[in-house]
Amino acid sequence: MTTQPWAIILVLIGTFIGSIGPIFFKKGADKFNFNPLQLIKNYNLIAGLFFYGISLIIFVIALTGGEVSILYPIVSVSYIWVCFLSIKILKEKMNLYKWLGILFIIFGVSMIGIAG
């Protein structure tokens, strides 16, 4: 099976949507409590689960158009999205090692795409 370009695009969209989840999880962690009633009221945790769920559905749809050995490594792009979103929304700082890690992820995903 040849991986279709639309499947790759769909995975990239799914990684962006899925990367919003950890941002909400971080916000929800500030109010985290093991009390079930408090968990239900923690809307940031619920939003994080929602975004993860949507990205899962998108990824499953994308798998119908390509090989898992090509599409799944692209999911690592979500780490890049999370870094950018954490800088923008959570005001986190990046250092040289984090930027190098992002470059390695981009290189690795590119190599898989070329080999595929």
Largest beta sheet, briefly?
Answer: none
Q: Given the structure, what is the number of helices?
A: 6
Quantity of strands, as a count: 0
Enumerate the spans where pLDDT stays under 50 for 5 or more consecutive residues: none
Number of domains: 1
Termini separation: 11 Å
Q: Strand percentage, roughly? A: under 5%
Class inferred from helices and paired strands = mainly alpha
Order of helices and strands: HHHHHH
Helical content stands at over 70%
Q: Provide the residue-averaged pLDDT.
A: 92
What oligomeric state best describes the polypeptide chains here?
A: single chain
| Overall geometric form | flat
Radius of gyration: 16 Å
Task: Kindly describe this structure.
The protein is mainly α and 116 residues long. It has one domain (5-115). 78% of the residues lie in helices and 0% in strands. Helix 1 runs antiparallel to helix 3 (43-63), helix 1 crosses helix 5 (77-88) and helix 5 (77-88) runs antiparallel to helix 6 (96-115). It is flat. The model has no long low-confidence stretch (mean pLDDT 92).
Task: Provide a concise account of the structure shown.
The chain is mainly α and 116 residues long. The chain has one domain (5-115). It has helices at 5-29, 36-41, 43-63, 68-74, 77-88, 96-115.
Quickly list its features.
single chain; 116 residues; mainly alpha; 78% helix; flat
Could you outline the blueprint of secondary structure elements for this entry?
Elements: H1 5-29, H2 36-41, H3 43-63, H4 68-74, H5 77-88, H6 96-115
Helix pairs in contact: 1-3, 1-5, 5-6
